[in-house]
UniProtKB/TrEMBL annotation:
It comes from the Bacteria. This is AB hydrolase-1 domain-containing protein. Residues 14-223 form the AB hydrolase-1 domain.
């Protein structure tokens, strides 16, 4: 696929845990994609104890029926959405994959993923705890750097039910991808607190950027995308 043609093909955006399509609002206006579609999470596909591939087994028929003849889908995945996107690419190996604040293979996974498989202590934390405390902790710790970002995250997180949150935590910990199925553009922040930079092997780094850089450093992320695809 010629690099420039990616802008004419459908781009499916997969948000991260506790977020929805609004997380892309700062970034997408800076990019020339002509056909952007969002894959917000659906509660009926989120089955606690089941993983990313189970979720995609329910999503794929819907996605495939939406595509017109000759359309080549491409994907942008943020955080948990990136994990899903790496698995989704196995069904569309000719697709281009844009990963932001996430990982692409098992080699980049944080130690807590391995620990969670053996000792899933996260099950002891009520999912509903995330509604109030996660945005506050993220703001206080500087992961979300401004008040507007904090308020946006709170609104998005409220669209997630406890069932969805339980599924997402387990799906992330048990995600596995030995190698990319196709072309990958990986952009990562040097101060990412979820996926440690020490293990990440991105195409491009963003200086002084945390896990929330798709909002706080949207211009830099957009510059890397346009530099890569032309």
């Amino acid at each position: 696929m010629p690099k420039s043609s990616i802008y004419q093909q459908p781009l499916y955006c997969l948000p991260g845990l506790g977020t929805d399509h609004r997380i892309f609002e700062q970034l997408l206006p800076l990019l020339p994609f002509e056909d952007v579609r969002f894959l917000d999470y659906k509660e009926e596909y989120c089955r606690p104890g089941k993983g990313c591939d189970d979720y995609l087994a329910h999503l794929l028929p819907e996605l495939q029926s939406e595509l017109k003849a000759g359309e080549q889908p491409n994907f942008m995945g943020l955080s948990l959405g990136g994990l899903l996107a790496t698995r989704l690419q196995h069904h569309f190996p000719d697709s281009q994959l844009i990963l932001v604040s996430t990982i692409k293979t098992n080699d980049e996974a944080p130690f807590i993923f391995s620990l969670g498989k053996i000792l899933p202590l996260y099950w002891l934390v009520p999912a509903i705890f995330s509604w109030e405390m996660v945005p506050r902790i993220s703001y206080w710790a500087g992961f979300i750097s401004d008040k507007s970002g904090y308020e946006l995250y709170k609104k998005m997180l409220r669209t997630w039910t406890p069932k969805m949150l339980r599924w997402a935590r387990d799906a992330a910990v048990h995600w596995s991808n030995s190698s990319p199925a196709g072309q990958v553009l990986h952009i990562h922040g040097k101060k990412d607190h979820v996926f440690p930079p020490s293990r990440a092997q991105p195409t491009y780094w963003v200086e002084d950027a945390t896990h929330y850089m798709i909002v706080s450093h949207a211009k830099e992320v957009a510059q890397h995308i346009k530099a890569h695809f032309g």
